[in-house]
Design goal:
2 helices; about 250 residues; five-stranded mixed β-sheet; four-stranded antiparallel β-sheet; mainly beta
């Protein structure tokens, strides 16, 4: 946002031993930073019993529009196969204009509370943020997924089965009597079970060939829902000592 006068004096030496025969002057204008806004953190899990705060970073924006869409539970697999937010997987919950405490050409952080927007609702939400300033030539935009839940999922896959373990994110206690389902990438249900008193579900004798490869695990209670996208969250065993003790 500033203009500088650049002067190069006559006689300034060059690398080859020659020197500048005449002086040179010019003005150089440094433009303002382009308006930007984005979500600061990449994670999707939001504790159901937490403060439900989302952190934004922005530059040179006075006002933004913040929108929340809810994705239907039975459209999770369909959504994960898409790029962006298809219009037919959820419902518009709210769109809110927010005033920012912007400082010229400075990066600022803003905390947006979802408590007033989604309340105690659980499940998967698609958040978008964009500029709401009139006449803005450059249209900054960002989006992210938020999973509001108290169910944490751990899974271990063998050649013919799955072990799924459910724990509360707030106090690590076992999540009992939750319905666990396993879906393929084409949204076919290939296995399901009910978690026991340890929060465990053991799914045996599964056929993972062809189109039966597990893609998503969902866990649902009467008032909560969580999911685990298997391939995106897989942990390789190559960095761990998995040999075990001699037989």
């Amino acid at each position: 946002g500033e203009t500088y006068k650049i002067s190069i004096l006559k006689g300034m030496p060059a690398a080859d031993g020659s020197s500048l025969m005449a002086g040179y002057e010019n003005e150089v204008s440094i433009p303002d930073y382009a308006p930007t806004v984005n979500f600061k953190t990449p994670g999707i899990y939001m504790a159901l019993k937490g403060e439900k705060n989302v952190l934004l970073e922005s530059v040179n924006l006075e006002k933004i529009k913040f929108a929340v869409n809810k994705i239907y539970d039975n459209n999770i697999v369909y959504y994960l196969n898409q790029s962006g937010m298809p219009s037919d997987v959820g419902i518009d919950l709210v769109e809110k204009e927010i005033q920012l405490n912007a400082e010229h050409n400075k990066l600022i952080e803003s905390t947006i509370s979802l408590k007033d927007l989604i309340g105690s609702d659980r499940g998967l939400f698609y958040l978008t943020v964009k500029s709401s300033e009139d006449g803005e030539q450059y249209y900054p935009y960002d989006s992210k997924l938020i999973l509001s839940t108290d169910i944490g999922i751990l899974a271990k896959q063998s050649s013919q089965g799955l072990a799924v373990w459910l724990n509360s994110l707030s106090d690590t206690s076992a999540v009992v009597n939750a319905t666990v389902k396993v879906f393929t990438q084409t949204n076919q249900l290939i296995a399901q079970g009910i978690s026991d008193e340890k929060g465990m579900v053991i799914l045996k004798d599964l056929d993972f060939s062809g189109d039966k490869k597990p893609f998503v695990i969902t866990a649902a209670t009467e008032n909560d829902l969580s999911f685990l996208e298997i391939q995106r969250n897989v942990l390789s065993e190559s960095d761990f000592d998995i040999q075990g003790r001699p037989y």
